[in-house]
Specification:
Elements lengths: L4 H29 L3 H9 L5 H34 L5 H21 L11 H22 L6 H7 L1
Helix pairs in contact: 1-3, 1-5, 2-3, 3-4, 4-5
């Protein structure tokens, strides 16, 4: 169980990050069934691709994004458990995972493919960064010390 209000708020932010990670993992599947942003993006970048080749590229992206999303969800759960158990290494581990997740998100958003455009359409790239906002809130809360309570001040005397 978490010990102080900041840790409880940080845990809430981490659960929000977990939910955003699950949603960001599902969005490409919703796109495949509805808007076809990813398929259109690939087709625009590679006009010579046949429909079968575009479909293969979309499937490859779905596998990659699912693996990233599943890894992110596992990381969130592991970090939530570590913070809840009061592990001393939880804050540095959460920070390292935030940096890793943000790096992966920015890579998906900014990396250009051989056609000269980003590999992912911007809407999907930005969606992948959404969990990082919750991570930023969580690590800020974990590293920020609250104002001391009367009990803490008395214990320090």
């Amino acid at each position: 169980m978490t010990k102080n209000p900041r840790e409880r708020w940080a845990t809430s932010a981490m659960y929000t990050g977990l939910a955003l990670t699950i949603a960001a993992t599902a969005v490409p599947y919703v796109d495949r069934a509805t808007l076809h942003l990813l398929a259109d993006h690939i087709r625009d970048g590679y006009p010579a691709y046949s429909q079968a080749r575009v479909d293969t590229a979309v499937t490859t992206y779905l596998i990659l994004l699912t693996a990233i999303g599943a890894s992110g969800a596992i990381a969130w759960l592991w970090t939530i458990r570590a913070v809840g158990a009061g592990r001393r290494w939880a804050r540095p581990a959460a920070t390292a995972l935030f940096v890793l997740g943000t790096t992966i998100g920015l890579t998906g958003l900014l990396t250009k493919d051989t056609a000269g455009d980003t590999g992912l359409p911007p809407a999907l790239g930005w969606t992948g960064l959404a969990p990082c906002l919750a991570g930023l809130v969580a690590i800020t809360l974990l590293w920020t010390r609250g104002t001391p309570t009367a009990q803490t001040m008395e214990a320090m005397r």
